[in-house]
């Protein structure tokens, strides 16, 4: 496929503010893509040259890209930067300058462009900036204006077509299986591999049956199994209709551990590779796990070896950094509480029961230096569960995660096979809500100097792959945080409502759904002005007295925010208390 053809589709995708039209455009595009190109097309749509979990970033500075444009189109870099100052988008600048240049060209293929971008990403060492600049400008020289516009946005990470993975899956289903509703059929394979490009390739080559046969492999993160909420031990045992597997709930961050021979890779809750951040965990894995290949699920927490105390989340989170890693690993060593195993010595354990996986876990991890296996306890007594819960709180932990002993590991699933039981402070909801910022509303008075008076926030409708509004929030942010939000939001603001946002309210400024915040509210109420869970004339859900607790984007993507389904359940739980 020619890159110029793909760029025309990017152009259409960028202009629509309707999700259904996004799917139609994508599906039309996919009908023309051959199997050898489909994976590359999938990555490029998301502004990448590899699946999300591969830590391959092109990461060119805006100045370097400006220099490439200047070189390609025979103008001064200063002129490019001046135009950029006016337009605020290097893509538009490149398009304009190319437009003035000589005749149209456009024989570059998707494959050719993709490979050069990969090469740019992989160029390291001396003279990197110059080499990258040269490669990009040589691509730009051979491009028509629309292609140039969309290409330059990729290396600076400004490619914002706003297309979520479920929307790509919808379009796969529509174009290859004849109905977008068949997305569900593709989700199993996707949840086990987290690689849209791979799903595309297998679907094109082997059809739906091929995708259904995909299983977990070391090196591809599995989408995490998640937990539902229930109010107390008795309700949990009633729901389980039998015994329950009880584990402590640690408040750190999730680490999925992949080991193959002496190579270990780590992935976060939102499937980002975090291998380089945690050398202490890597060492722990190599020392304590003798199996040749294994995938483990764990929660990592900072631990003070002197006082033998688990540190609060605010401390643990200091370990998420890109610099000074070795020193931090010494001063804030982590322990990984390993609560599950999904793969062992070449065999997937996904379909085995939790009970049997826990046995494999215990026999695979030796000692408790860094990795601490969590065998948990099986009980059918509400009193015993309450005791364990109280004990967890005494230890400074968050509560319990209670699991169905006979359940499989369900990649990407959130259901009652896992239930979280947390401490609840009176007058407030039992749990916080992760919201995504959709826009901001200009303020009057003191706050107007920071440019935002309130944030319009939403949650995620997983079925529709849409963001729906749930609240306006202005409380809980310090002046410093307002400035920070404003700075970050300005980089991702767009001129029209993003296609995947469904809102009745119109904020002063729309932004791409990217920034996730944790919000505490007193209550979930019904409201006709919000679209979360709104169904025809029936009102949606809204938050009463919302306030910001913290920013969550280090470990959550927009699609990982609280879902409408969860919100609805939390709403109903309020009446059971
Ligand atoms: P979620 O991950 O469910 O979207 P969240 O990030 O807000 O929500 P919580 O709802 O507080 O987190 O709890 C779920 C998280 O608890 C898991 O994702 C995992 O990181 C962590 N966790 C701690 N201990 C365990 C355990 N024993 N079993 C499973 N998860 C655990």
Give your account of this protein's structure.
- The chain has 577 residues and is an alpha+beta fold.
- It folds into 4 domains: 151 residues, DNA ligase, ATP-dependent, N-terminal domain (DNA ligase i, domain 1, Orthogonal Bundle); 48 residues; 197 residues, DNA ligase/mRNA capping enzyme (D-amino Acid Aminotransferase, Chain A, domain 1, 2-Layer Sandwich); 141 residues, Nucleic acid-binding proteins (OB fold (Dihydrolipoamide Acetyltransferase, E2P)), CATH 2.40.50.
- 39% of the residues lie in helices and 21% in strands.
- The strands form 4 sheets. Strands 13, 14, 15, 16, 17, 18, 19 and 22 form an 8-stranded mixed sheet that branches.
- Strand 3 and strand 4 form a beta hairpin.
- The site of adenosine-5'-triphosphate has 13 residues, from strand 1 and strand 2.
- Adenosine-5'-triphosphate binds next to strand 1 and strand 2.
Short description:
The chain is built from 20 helices and 22 strands. It is of the alpha+beta class and 577 residues long. Strands 13, 14, 15, 16, 17, 18, 19 and 22 form an eight-stranded mixed β-sheet that branches. Strands 3, 4, 5, 6, 7, 8 and 9 form a seven-stranded mixed β-sheet that branches.
Number of strands: 22
Task: Identify the CATH homologous superfamily of the largest domain.
Answer: DNA ligase/mRNA capping enzyme
Largest sheet: 8 strands, mixed
Low-confidence stretches: none
Just name the CATH architecture of the largest domain: 2-Layer Sandwich
Number of domains: 4
What compounds sit in this structure? adenosine-5'-triphosphate
CATH class of the largest domain: Alpha Beta
Share of helical residues:
25-40%
Number of helices: 20
Averaged pLDDT:
91
Backbone structural class: alpha+beta
Beta strand %: 15-25%
Q: Given the C-alpha coordinates, what overall shape results?
A: globular
Calculate Rg over CA atoms. 25 Å
Distance between the termini: 58 Å
CATH topology category name of the largest domain = D-amino Acid Aminotransferase, Chain A, domain 1
């Amino acid at each position: 496929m020619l890159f110029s053809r793909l760029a025309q589709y990017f152009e259409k995708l960028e202009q629509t503010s309707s999700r259904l039209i996004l799917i139609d455009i994508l599906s039309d595009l996919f009908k023309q893509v051959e199997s050898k190109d489909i994976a590359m097309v999938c990555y490029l749509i998301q502004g990448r040259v590899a699946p999300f979990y591969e830590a391959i970033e092109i990461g060119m500075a805006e100045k370097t890209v400006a220099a490439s444009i200047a070189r390609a189109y025979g103008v001064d870099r200063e002129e490019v930067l001046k135009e950029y100052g006016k337009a605020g988008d290097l893509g538009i600048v490149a398009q304009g300058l190319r437009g003035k240049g000589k005749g149209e060209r456009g024989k570059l293929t998707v494959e050719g462009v993709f490979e050069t971008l990969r090469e740019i990403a992989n160029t390291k060492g001396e003279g990197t900036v110059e080499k990258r600049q040269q490669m990009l400008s040589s691509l730009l020289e051979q491009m028509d204006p629309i292609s140039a516009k969309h290409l330059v946005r990729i290396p600076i990470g400004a490619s914002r077509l706003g297309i979520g993975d479920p929307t790509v899956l919808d379009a796969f289903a529509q174009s290859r299986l004849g109905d977008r509703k068949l997305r569900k059929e593709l989700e199993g394979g996707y949840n086990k591999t987290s690689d849209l490009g791979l799903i595309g390739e297998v679907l094109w080559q082997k059809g739906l049956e091929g995708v259904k046969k995909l299983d977990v492999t070391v090196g591809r993160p599995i989408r995490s199994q998640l937990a539902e909420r229930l109010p107390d031990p008795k309700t949990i045992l009633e729901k389980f209709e039998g015994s329950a597997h009880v584990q402590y709930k640690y408040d750190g961050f999730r680490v999925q551990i992949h080991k193959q021979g002496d190579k270990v890779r780590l992935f976060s809750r939102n499937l980002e590779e975090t291998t380089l951040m945690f050398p202490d965990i890597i060492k722990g894995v190599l020392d304590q796990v003798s199996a040749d290949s294994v995938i483990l699920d764990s929660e990592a927490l900072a631990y003070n070896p002197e006082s033998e105390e688990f540190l609060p989340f605010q401390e643990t989170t200091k370990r998420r950094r890109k610099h000074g890693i070795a020193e931090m690993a010494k001063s804030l060593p982590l322990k990984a509480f390993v609560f599950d195993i999904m793969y062992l010595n070449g065999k997937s354990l996904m379909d085995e029961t939790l009970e049997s996986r826990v046995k494999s876990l215990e026999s695979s991890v030796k000692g408790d230096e860094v990795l601490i296996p969590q065998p948990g306890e099986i009980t059918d007594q509400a009193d015993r569960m309450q005791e364990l819960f109280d004990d967890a709180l005494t230890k400074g932990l968050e509560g319990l995660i209670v699991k169905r002993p006979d359940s499989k590991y369900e990649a990407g699933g959130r259901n009652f096979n896992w239930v979280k039981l947390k401490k609840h402070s009176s007058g407030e909801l039992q749990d916080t809500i992760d919201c995504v910022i959709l826009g901001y509303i200009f303020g009057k008075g003191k706050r107007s100097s920071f440019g935002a008076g309130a944030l319009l926030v939403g949650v995620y409708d997983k079925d529709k792959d849409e963001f729906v509004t749930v609240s306006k929030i202005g409380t809980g942010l310090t002046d410093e945080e307002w400035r920070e939000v404003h700075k970050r939001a300005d980089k991702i603001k767009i001129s029209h409502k993003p296609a995947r946002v469904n809102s009745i309210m119109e904020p002063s400024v729309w932004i791409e759904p990217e920034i996730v915040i944790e919000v505490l509210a007193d209550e979930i109420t019904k409201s006709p002005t919000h679209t979360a869970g709104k169904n025809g004339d029936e009102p949606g859900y809204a938050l009463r007295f919302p306030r910001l607790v913290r920013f969550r984007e280090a470990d959550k993507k927009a699609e990982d925010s609280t879902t409408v389904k969860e919100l609805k359940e939390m709403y109903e739980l309020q009446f059971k208390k």
